[in-house]
Amino acid sequence: MKKPIDSKMHGLIDYAFAGIQLVGPTLLGLNKNLTKTYQLLGSAFTAVNAATATPVGITNLLSMKEHQKADASFLATLSILTWAKMMKNEKKSLAFHLGFLGFAMMHYALTDYKEE
Asked: pTM to 2 decimals?
């Protein structure tokens, strides 16, 4: 069964996710450690997306299959981050993080990474 998110839509959503990571914690007034961590992740997210061979990528350094591996690594990192002290001790930070993680997992599950 073909998944509903193609490479172009995936790239557009990734840019939106990167924007959320880069500015969301600051706008919400979350703690500085979380904000810096999300800014680092957002920068890496942007770089991977820009380097992927999609209609919205800037270069063609990565295939969608390689991008999928990077996405899996991001999800693993976000999952592990759930247990960080900066998350567990602040309800607002944890709520932002779990919401973002949930949307990121859904995005991964609905993407057709086999598309060329």
From this structure: 0.92
